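thread: overnight batch results

M.L. [08:02]
morning all. the overnight job finished for the chain we discussed friday. pasting input first so we're all looking at the same thing
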Amino acid sequence: MRTLREKFDIINKLVRQKNDENSALKSNIKKALLEEKTVARDCGGGDKDAELTQHEFNQVSQTHDFQKLYNTTYQFMLDRMKKDLISLTLTINDRTESLRSKK
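M.L. [08:03]
and the structure it wrote out:
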């Protein structure tokens, strides 16, 4: 019975040490988080960087969308001009033939 009690005391002592270490680590983590918030607030980092990055992403995305719209419009107009050129060329050829036949 005595050996069991001694083993229990040793294990209980180890458990208390681990719990104390765990508590110390938790308190260190809390301190580090508070320091991080303080530094971020003072230096303008952290949340502000994320906000600026999101804003820049929105601007680039909007610019890309406008450029894509511009390119689509340009391609449509280019195709339309090619079709008009073909149509005008055919009309010119028809009228040229008509003029020759009248002469």
